[in-house]
Amino acid sequence: MITGRADRLPQWPARPADRRRSGLRNSRQRGQATVELALVLPLIAVLLLLMVQAGLVVRDQLVITHAAREAARAAAVDPGADVAAIVGQRTDLDGVTTQQTQDGGNVRVDVHAEIVVRVPLLAMLRPTVGLDASATMRVETG
Question: For the chain, which residues make up each domain, given as ranges?
Fold first, then answer.
């Protein structure tokens, strides 16, 4: 009688019928994984494109806010400053409109832009996004 040697005995290969069943099971699982990937991959791609477009819109919002702030500062220092030209220099966007108002000792610059959606798939859903920014500065008297 042999004792204590069961862990050292060689493992025999599975019977051919067992191998066929396990191979069939693996191919079915691979097929299921392929179908799941085909269903989920378009959703993941759309989410990635949405994140890219959101980043581009946030960047444009920051550019417009910065341009409004610089234009308001220029108008506060020099009442004759051309606010539209300053905003145009600071932004690389088309369709930007500006409005300057002065009340009391403050000057306010409002900037509005219609941003074109750059991601092709999302452009079909919503071709433009409206962005607004405003800045108020105290007029400096010299």
Answer: 15-138
